[in-house]
Specification:
21% of the residues lie in helices and 26% in strands. The protein contains 6 helices and 16 strands.
Length: 340
């Protein structure tokens, strides 16, 4: 376990206040400790500590000091935060009972409305070598709610080259279609009491007709782009749209069993959909946390991460989450200073 200390300076005119911060790295959180209702004269549960393990597997417990404004902020992400809340006894009662977890607060919305921006892509073989660009450099935002992006000259699938059916990633590129604001939702369930084991998550990609139609329009946009005059030197002249679709049906985009030919764009979307790791939901604001990201029904506990988002940006959500963390950090510190 690695610790380091730093100081954050908060401006409080005309001077600065220095707040010492201790950061502990390389540890895995196991659960949040909560005092139950009616204990110590309280009418609602209160978080007072965190159980975690270091890299050697040794268990530790970190306690709040009991001051009025002390609190725990959970930022384990859209998959980790709902899981940790359930392991801490905050979640749907049927799931907690199934794993013999003591119910601290029955909260049926924890783990609900899980979503992910579905991604479909087409590999377009090229007659010439394409400049490598692993990271997306250009984003096209369509009027129907899909984002079109591209990267070239690189095997983003990290697959055996034989899957490219005689073509090579160096001569070609991928054009992506990502559905922004998916309506299709799923849920997250814990499989046991071990926080190191992944929860069971269902996103129900493209189950809502509106999402599927966006994907179809996105694939149509990609094919239209590939057939444009501006793109002509990067596409094999004798390759038809059906050839491109059939080639991509053979690429390992996911583990869904399907045929090797594309029968329709709707079926193509369903067969080749994959994640872009834009997970969100599970601790929605207004259902699990309030507008200050405090867990509803529990004192001294907040969740601040992608699990609270109602919608994730069509592009990478990291900047949005960084801004959320920055904003809430400044807000919380300002509130504490004002209350002193």
């Amino acid at each position: 376990m690695l610790n380091f200390r730093c100081r954050i300076k908060i401006k409080k005119s005309p001077n600065f206040i220095q707040i010492p911060i201790v950061v502990i790295l390389y540890r895995s959180t196991h659960k949040v400790l909560c005092l139950p209702i009616l204990r110590m004269g309280r009418s609602r549960p209160r978080a007072y500590g965190v159980v975690f393990k270091d890299t050697l597997g040794k268990k530790h417990v970190a306690y709040l000091k009991g001051r009025k404004k002390d609190e725990i902020i959970l930022s384990a992400g859209a998959l980790g935060s709902p899981q940790l809340l359930m392991l801490s006894g905050i979640g749907p009662k049927d799931q907690l009972d199934a794993h013999n977890i003591k119910v601290v607060l029955e909260q049926p919305f924890v783990g609900q409305d899980m979503a992910d921006n579905p991604l479909n892509m087409l590999f377009i073989p090229s007659p010439i070598v394409v400049e490598p660009s692993l990271l997306v450099q250009v984003v096209g935002i369509t009027s129907f709610g899909s984002y079109i992006e591209a990267s070239g000259g690189f095997d983003i699938l990290f697959a055996n080259l034989s899957v490219y059916q005689g073509y090579t990633p160096e001569k070609g590129g991928f054009i992506y279609e990502k559905v922004n604001g998916p309506l299709s939702k799923g849920d997250l369930k814990i499989v046991n009491r071990n926080p190191a084991d992944n929860p069971s998550v269902t996103f129900n990609y493209l189950t809502e007709p509106e999402d599927l139609q966006k994907c179809v329009k996105g694939i149509e946009t990609i094919l239209k782009t590939a057939n444009s005059e501006a793109f002509s030197k990067y596409k094999l002249a004798n390759m038809t749209d059906q050839d491109i679709l059939n080639l991509n049906m053979k690429l390992p985009y996911n583990m869904i069993p399907h045929g090797n030919t594309s029968t329709s764009l709707k079926q193509h979307c369903k067969d080749t959909v994959r994640t872009i790791w834009h997970y969100h939901g599970g601790c929605h604001i207004g259902k699990v946390v309030d507008d200050e990201y405090k867990v509803l029904g529990v004192d001294s506990l907040r969740v601040i991460d992608g699990s609270t988002l109602l919608n994730s940006p069509g592009t990478n959500p990291q900047a949005s989450l960084l801004m959320l963390g920055r904003y809430m950090g400044v807000t919380i510190l300002s509130q504490r200073i004002a209350g002193e």
